[in-house]
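Hi all, posting the design record for the shared folder.

TITLE: backbone redesign
STEP: 1 of 1
STRUCTURE INPUT:
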């Protein structure tokens, strides 16, 4: 006489197999699952036409994040604001040396970003192609630009350039902007004893 399979035992094996499949998909199918993310919000004066969710966020040409949300928010009376949520991954923000990487870990990405904002880091909208009209968010240093923020936001805010300022990007001192970026990382390498510029 053959023995019947224990339903509880069979059920346990099925649940275990499903759990292994789900874990495998999570680990191998989504490499960003366990990568820490941090978010900022930006408010642009110019039209966001052509900027889509998923659009790249680039720092001096290097992709460091993406646009994760675009909404229209009624801010009182007849004013509508368009907050653009920028999502960065810790994995995309690296340091060139072990010393700088340790300093980045010690201070935290948010503190480093705030220091860069103090030194002129701003967000602008840049067109990828005249044919498609698609846009991405570009981050770069703009010495002397106004620290323009809306304030009162749930997320930390990434300042943006005034529309007129953004239209004159080609006239900006590119060499000075690059020098600002290099000076920032040199000061970061010296550690907190050097103080903020």
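Okay, here is what came back for every position:
SEQUENCE:
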């Amino acid at each position: 006489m053959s023995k019947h399979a224990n339903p509880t035992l069979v059920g346990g094996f099925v649940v275990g197999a499903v759990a292994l499949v789900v874990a495998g998909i999570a680990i191998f199918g989504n490499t960003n699952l366990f990568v820490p993310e941090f978010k900022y919000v930006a408010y642009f004066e110019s039209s966001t036409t052509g900027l889509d969710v998923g659009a790249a966020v680039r720092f001096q040409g290097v992709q460091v994040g993406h646009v994760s949300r675009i909404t229209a928010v009624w801010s009182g009376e007849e004013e509508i604001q368009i907050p653009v949520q920028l999502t960065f991954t810790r994995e995309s923000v690296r340091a060139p040396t072990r010393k700088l990487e340790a300093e980045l870990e010690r201070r935290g990405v948010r503190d480093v970003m705030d220091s860069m904002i103090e030194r002129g880091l701003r967000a602008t909208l840049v067109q990828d192609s005249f044919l498609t009209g698609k846009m991405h968010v570009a981050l770069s240093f703009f010495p002397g630009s106004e620290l323009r923020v809306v304030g009162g936001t749930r997320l930390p805010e990434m300042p943006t350039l005034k529309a007129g300022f953004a239209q004159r990007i080609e006239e900006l001192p590119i060499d000075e902007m690059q020098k600002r970026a290099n000076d920032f990382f040199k000061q970061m390498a010296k550690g907190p004893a050097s103080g903020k510029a």
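COMMENT: Confidence is low (pLDDT under 50) at residues 21-33, 166-171.
Let me know if anyone wants the other runs.
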